[in-house]
Structures are given as structure tokens and as C-alpha cells.
Amino acid sequence: MTDKWLNVGKIVNTHGIRGEVRVISRTDFPEERYKIGNTLYVDMGSEQIPVTIETHRKHKQFDLLTFEGLENINDVERFKGQLLKVPKEQSVTLDEGEFFYHDIIGCSVFTVEGEELGKVKEILSPGANDVWVVKRKGFGSDILIPYIPSVVKTVDIDAQKISIEPLEGLF
Q1: Domain range list for the chain
Q2: How far is C-alpha 70 from the geometric centre of its chain's CA atoms?
């Protein structure tokens, strides 16, 4: 059952009394997923409850959403702690050089010379480009790799392998 759904966010709390929920986004495409009129599904374990997005706004690191027909806090209280999902068929088509976060996380990272650095453990989106956080093989602090063409040379999702040309002073 789980492989039929894509996780796009987690409802962590309510926000105010007018049915707004606070979501930690787990999608690479928040502007697409949280578009007004879109249907998402709240995973209640035994059932997926469809909800239609009425409003979306950003607040700090959260996405704040309201759903059609759920106008107060009592309507959405039960969704706290639940995941928001979409059917896997609604997967977004990517352009060349674009990847889903879940495809990159877990990949092994090597220098172009073949030295294994570690595995991607998370992806940060601080600004103009993503930054891949690599848990170093062995010990040492994490390596932060900017996802830019001059650094990331090849990404092979099938082989779970990324090769990079490290910037001077990267580690």
C-alpha cells in the first residue's frame, strides 16, 4: 500500500482557529503540490482522506494550508501528526539534471578520482541552489556539496553513485 503513495508533507500542528494547518513540506515541488484546488490525501492509517487546498502561504519554515469545507480548528485537529500524500501516478516529470530528493538521499559520493567520500543524508534548500549533506565515510564532520555543474559531475540514480569535482577548501 505504501508504494502507491508519495509523501508530500506532514501536518505538525494547527495554526489559529480558522482551520489552517502547519505543514513541514517533504516535497521537491511545494508550489505544484500546494496549488489552490489541488487534492491531497491525509493518511489516517486505515484510510486516505481527500482534502482540497483552499489557501496556501509560507510562514517561517512551514507551509500553511487550509482545506475546502474545513473552516475551523475542530475540523482539522484530528489531522495533527498525519502525513499528506498524493497517488504515485501524480509524480512530477523531471527535466534533465533534475532529481527527486528521495533518489539522491542515500547515494554514495565519490571524487572524480574515485575516492569515496560518504553518502548523501539530506538536502538543504537555502537559496539559489540545493546543498547536499554528505555523511562522511568513517569519521569527521559532514561535507556540504553545492549542487552546481562545476561541482557535481555525474549522477547515476540506478547505481546510486554521484561523482564530484570538489571545490578548493571543500573539506
Answers
A1: 2-89, 101-164
A2: 26
Contact, 11 vs 80, CB < 8 A?
yes
According to the 3-state scheme, what is the secondary structure of 29-97? CHHHHCCCCCEEEEECCCCEEEEEEEEEEEECCEEEEEECCECCHHHHHHHCCCEEEEEHHHCCCCCCC
> Taking the CB of residue 169, how many other CB atoms lie within 10 A of it?
5
25-83 confidence digits (pLDDT tens): 888 788 889 999 999 999 998 899 999 999 999 998 899 999 999 999 999 999 999 99
All cell numbers assigned to 161: 553513485
Q: How much is the pTM? A: 0.59
Would you say domain 2-89 falls under CATH 2.40.30.90?
no
140 and 118 Cβ atoms separated by less than 8 Å? no
Architecture of the domain made up of 101-164: Roll (2.30)
Residues with Cβ < 8 Å from 30, sequence gap 6 or more? 63
β-strand 161-164 against 108-111: which pairing, if any?
parallel
